[in-house]
Every structure is written in C-alpha cells, then in structure tokens.
Specification:
This protein is α/β, with parallel strands linked by helices. The protein has helices at residues 4-7, 10-28, 36-52, 67-85, 90-109, 154-159, 161-189, 203-209, 215-220, 234-253, 276-284, 323-335, 351-357, 388-413; strands at 55-63, 122-131, 139-145, 151-152, 226-230, 261-268, 294-302, 308-314, 319-320, 341-344, 361-367.
Amino acid sequence: MDLSKIIDKKAEAAAYMQEEITNVIKTFGKRDPGSEGEKQAVEYMAKQLEEYTDEVVVEPFDVYPASFMSWIYISVTFVFLAMASYFFMPILSLVLVAAAMVLMFGQFIMYRRLVDKLFEKKTSYNLTSIKKPKGEVKRRLFYNGHPDAAYEWPMVYHLGGRAMLLILLTVFMGIVYVFGVIIAGIVLRGVNQAATVIGAGDIINKLGYGMFAFVPSFVSMFFFWNERRVVDGANDNLTACYMGISIMKALKENGIELENTEVGVLITGSEEAGLRGAKAWSEAHKGEYEDVPTYIFAFDTIREKQYLGVNVKDLNGTVKADPTAAALFRNAAKKIDLICNDTTVPLGATDSAAFNQGGFKSVGITGMSHDIQKYYHTREDSYDNTDLEALADCFAISVQALEDLENEAAAEKK
C-alpha cells in the first residue's frame, strides 16, 4: 500500500484543519467539560465522520468537571486549618495535612476520582468512528483527540509558565515543611502531649511560626485556575480532533481502501477534567479490540513542529507509553525525514495515560514545549495561533504510520 499521494497533500490537510478549528470555535462557543458547546462540537464531528467512515457511535458518560481542580480549595483549606491547629492540637493538624496531601496526590498527580461525586454532575460524550478494510482485519489504528477546552490558568497568562512552576514548587516545599514541623512537634513533645496545647515559647512553637512564610504561595493557589473563563482550545485540543478527521477525509476523497487495517477516530470528552472521557471509554470497551494488534495515537497540542514527538512517559511521568505504538510513529517520521522526539509529560497528562492504564496500547503524541508556553491553557490558545507546518508534519507521519501498519499486515499474510 502506497499512501504517498496523501502525504504529499499534507499542506492541504493542514489548511483544512485550520479552517475547521476556526469554524468549531466560532460556531459552538465555549467547550468546557460537560458543556453544551462540547456536546455540539462532538455532534458536528460525528456528522463529518459519517461521510468518511463506516461506523460512528456516540456514547454519553457522567462527569464532575469541577472536581479535578477544586481539590485545590479543599487541600489548601486543610493546610491552613492544620497550621492553626498545630498550636493547639498537633495530632489534629497531622490528620488535616495528611488529608490535604492524599487529595493532592490522588486527584491531581494520579488523576484518581477521589472527590468527583462531591461536585455537580454533567454529561460528556465519547465518539468512536471506524473505517473497515476490504479484507480480513489484521491490524487496527485509532487516532485520538479531545474536543473540550481548558479553564484558563491565570498564572501562565500573567506571569508565564516558569513563574507558575516556581510557585508550584514553593507550594510543594511549603506543604513538606508544614508536614515536617508537625511530625517534629509530635515526636519531640510526645504523642500524649501532642493532643493538647504546646507551651508558648517552645522551640517547636518557633518552628511553627515558620509555616506562615508560605502563606502567600498557598493563597495564590486559590487563583490557579479561573472557572469563569474557558479558553478556545484551538491547539489543545482541536488540532488533535482534526488530525484524525483529516486523515479519514483524505482516505475517502482519494478513493483509498485499506486491505487489512481497520482505522478509526476516537473523540474522548472531558480530558481537561482529568482524562475522564478516555477513562470512561476504556471502561466501556474493556476487553474489546483484542482480536488483532490495536494501537492508539493520542494527539495533544500539535503546535510546535520542533517539539513534535512521542511521550514515552505520561501522567506526570508515572505511566509508560506502549513501546510498539511509540516505535510505529517514531519509525514513520524517520522514513519521511521529519522530526520526532522522545519526550515525557512532566506536568499533567494526555489521554494516552488513561488508555494504557485501561489495558490498551497507546502513545501520546504532542507538538509542544513542556517548558510551558504562554498559549497553554490561556486565552492565547486561539484559532489564529496555530502552526500549519506542525499540523502538516504530524499529518504526514500519521499517514506514513498507517501505511507501515498496512504493509506489516500484508507481509504477515505472505
């Protein structure tokens, strides 16, 4: 199978993506997780994919969007209460700061659903679209993107990504200090006395006063995200949605029918609420697609071609990508002499992490500097701030990977 005529049209495909990204943003408005805008965008994409594929299924799922970032309010409040109770009942302060740390680690670092049901329930949507081959299915490849957009991160917009990371580091150091002082207070005073007032003038009291040096950084976390402003999400992540759709469109318009490779598009909602759509899809389809080698390319923020590559580790560096899926994209890039870096998602995650945790073979593919840029999760992630070359290169590599998978299936038959 030779798909070079599609690859040669990568600039045309990029222009189509740019046109549709602009159209979705202008037509459907804000697309925060579980919103009407997100729903309408998914329905629109479903209609487009019905023209290019054989099967399109839209599945609703429950989501609690505010829970993913609202842990901040709970954890920071617990830390403040721990700081205050330290001077009266250190045991209570230990319980409070431990609860704050568990919530921060579970809800934000590991993307668990610890407190989701404490918040308002909404409905989000996943879309599965499949184009069947002419013959027996020997391989399967899904292109994935998420249609929802993030709430703005004011720190990044006003101060820059590095300043935000510095503040987060200070907050982390502050929590460690508070936890350490509380433990020291309990150990030095004894467990029995730790349940009562610590004497004024005690050295442990003086260490406790040091906790208040971190109050400004703790307070700043209340302004980490702005739930009243939803960004346009042109790069993050309409670029990913239309990467897959543009490939399906190109196959259809060029009359190309694959022989043994089933190819499809997954649109998974509410990624910005903690990968909730990819988690729901993985649970709903657990045990499916095991008949043949199946891979998922989870695209996210295809904006800077010099940083285009595979994320060998995801979810704050804790989840490994599937090595075969990563190699498929990496080798395809090498064949057509385009950039493909090996990188890691050091802060945050892509839907690939949820797919891999759910038992599927996936790799996250990003085209962005992980030294957070000003457009990331801010109002500057707009339709007039995309990069056509990045989109074109990612398109070309993704098509080449499909060709390689098809040729692999053909070689297996022989």
